[in-house]
Amino acid sequence: MPSVDVHAHLGVPAVDELIADEPGLAGQRAADAAALGPESASYNVEQIRSLAVKLTDVDVRIAAMDRAGVDVQAVSPVPLPHAWAERGLAERITALTNEAVAECCSRRPDRLVGIGAVALQHPDLAVEQLRTAVRELGLRGVQISTSAAPGVELDDPSLAEFWAAADELGAAVLIHPWGCTLGERLNAYYLFNTVGNPVETALALSRLAFSGLLERHPGLRIWSAHGGGYLGSYLVRADHAWQVRGDARTTEAPPSELLRRTFVDSLVYTPQQLRHLVDAMGAGQVTLGSDYPFDMGVEDPVHRLLEADLDATTTEAIRGGNAARLLGPLPPVG
């Protein structure tokens, strides 16, 4: 079984060039800067510049994988949101993104598998893009944010056809946050990311569980970054609400049972936290994740898995077996 890193990102300069002068991008950047605060916003600009080669050079990527003991990497776009893009522009952004992911993976099909993008703010278009990504480009699924657009959550009825298509195709849907709708309350100390990202993921997963989506589509392959955010540490509170309140008793199964049908990554940093995550989510639902090449990620996901000192069956499942269930057949080792 290969070691599979499900959480790694690719930069797409062609998209950056396409949207450079778009008013929507300027608005997104202004909102992000306000939420980040001036110090973190400045820091992030410099970081992105410094990571340009790692985000785009396949040889540099493969060398980093070799150092980390990672055999296969699932490559997904940098999760910058483009929910502001009107339909025509959204079509071009997604096409360029998915073609770039496919081209990157085609250079090392023995080591890389692709995760694309969809314009979820245009639900009917997102369905078409998902089908094209999987059936024509050979991608294993798509990455989405924690909402489809401002005011449109992932359980919104307008997205029903998208979720049905993902189920039908057996496509992985990777949920990756970008900041947090708490906005300027997080504008210091990089709370935009350290608090904001886990909060957004916990909220998105909670809505999917309580809405009944995971019961309507039990075959969905949903994965979330950063260990699923804060939810894994406090699933019992969701279950308690489900048990005692009529407005929260919206599903046949309790939320914890439904959420254990989804996958998360191992990016929780310490052996103790990884053991807790496995206990909360189940040994069959955790995959390796590095968040390559960002500073909130780790360079040694395999080593950190081994440090958790889990039993051999669980270790092998997290190393790669669970990723094969999420993404489909993987390139053979060697």
Automatic annotation (TrEMBL):
Keywords: Hydrolase, Lyase. InterPro entries: ACMSD, Amidohydro-rel, Metal_Hydrolase. GO terms for biological process: secondary metabolic process. It holds the Pfam family Amidohydro_2. Signal peptide: none annotated. GO terms for cellular component: cytoplasm. GO terms for molecular function: carboxy-lyase activity; hydrolase activity. Residues 4-328 form the Amidohydrolase-related domain. This is Amidohydrolase.
